[in-house]
Amino acid sequence: MMKHLVIGGAGYIGGVCVEKLIERGDAVVVLDHLGTGHRENVHPNAIFIQGEKGDSKLLDKIFSEHKIDTVLDFAGLIQVGESVKKPSKYFQNNFCQGVSLLDSMRRNGVDKIIFSSTAAVFGNPKTVPITEEADKSPINPYGESKYFFELAIKRYAEAYDLKYTIFRYFNACGATIMSKEQHINESHLIPLIFQAVKGERANIAVFGTDYETTDGTCIRDYVHIEDLISAHLAAIKYMEKSFRNEFNLGNGSGYSVKEVINAVEKITGKKVPVVFADRREGDPARLIASSEKAKKELGWSPKYPKIEQIIESAWSAELR
Ligand SMILES: NC(=O)c1ccc[n+]([C@@H]2O[C@H](COP(=O)([O-])OP(=O)(O)OC[C@H]3O[C@@H](n4cnc5c(N)ncnc54)[C@H](O)[C@@H]3O)[C@@H](O)[C@H]2O)c1
């Protein structure tokens, strides 16, 4: 039986990974400091350890007590705005602690990592859809902290034979039976719209209506968390023969903010209170992934390609 260490397994996306690994019969150890995660997100059959991924002593203990096949690192701080105000917190958590994790793995002979990176490493892309080869020029400390860790992983692969898969998620969304999006200080569009629909916030602000897009609002690529995790499961197998991998994960089609709002209104049957505001600095007009590489190499095939399917899954979790 394979055993994996899922760091950040009490979070939104990591929790689904734990759920799916256990469903397929693998054993899972979860390490999470619960800073932004929720203990109840962790599948009851997983071993849960509360702690920091940069805690070398704790990592040595975990690796000596459990024979870990793959480390899946979902543990990150994810708020772009906060990262601008508190870069130290982001570089420490997302980069420095990550390097410390790589050293713990190396000391203990654990040589496979799957890392959750982000479309934010691309900054303002010159062209869409964005391929893996596109220039990486992040424009905020969040994106930089993720990109620096990507670079560290690649250097460790060259020097110490680390095997890796880097996934760059676009906009993660949707829900499963166990897990729904409930970030602390939520900043993601779909849960914010739901809050507005449920009267938990006065309205949803749409930043910018004068972009060069069909309806003037920003276009993003929304990808369901179950689809993200199916790519991780495929990668565990793929890494038996291919050791240095990077994939962008999105549906390859974008939806504008207005289109997402319209889809929520259609599915919930409720009017969304909207206010229109100026553009936010640093918001690119279009972020759309090319996921051709993941499809070709991993045989990845998203089950939720349409925004309506994603919103239906997220809304039914709200109603549970
Ligand atoms: N949600 C998205 O749309 C999105 C998009 C692109 C990339 N990502 C990446 O995916 C990963 C998971 O995102 P999420 O939406 O599930 O966020 P989340 O906040 O729900 O989950 C992150 C989890 O990691 C834990 N954690 C953070 N730092 C830690 C540390 N140093 N040690 C131990 N535990 C730690 C948190 O407590 C939390 O449980 C992140 O790394 C994020 O950068 C997310």
UniProtKB/TrEMBL annotation:
<keyword id="KW-0520">NAD</keyword>
<feature type="domain" description="NAD-dependent epimerase/dehydratase">
    <location>
        <begin position="5"/>
        <end position="250"/>
    </location>
</feature>
<dbReference type="GO" id="GO:0003978">
    <property type="term" value="F:UDP-glucose 4-epimerase activity"/>
</dbReference>
<comment type="subunit">
    <text>Homodimer.</text>
</comment>
<dbReference type="InterPro" id="IPR001509">
    <property type="entry name" value="Epimerase_deHydtase"/>
</dbReference>
<dbReference type="GO" id="GO:0006012">
    <property type="term" value="P:galactose metabolic process"/>
</dbReference>
<protein>
    <recommendedName>
        <fullName>UDP-glucose 4-epimerase</fullName>
        <ecNumber>5.1.3.2</ecNumber>
    </recommendedName>
</protein>
<keyword id="KW-0119">Carbohydrate metabolism</keyword>
<dbReference type="Pfam" id="PF01370">
    <property type="entry name" value="Epimerase"/>
</dbReference>
<keyword id="KW-0413">Isomerase</keyword>
<comment type="similarity">
    <text>Belongs to the NAD(P)-dependent epimerase/dehydratase family.</text>
</comment>
<dbReference type="InterPro" id="IPR005886">
    <property type="entry name" value="UDP_G4E"/>
</dbReference>
<dbReference type="InterPro" id="IPR036291">
    <property type="entry name" value="NAD(P)-bd_dom_sf"/>
</dbReference>
<comment type="pathway">
    <text>Carbohydrate metabolism; galactose metabolism.</text>
</comment>
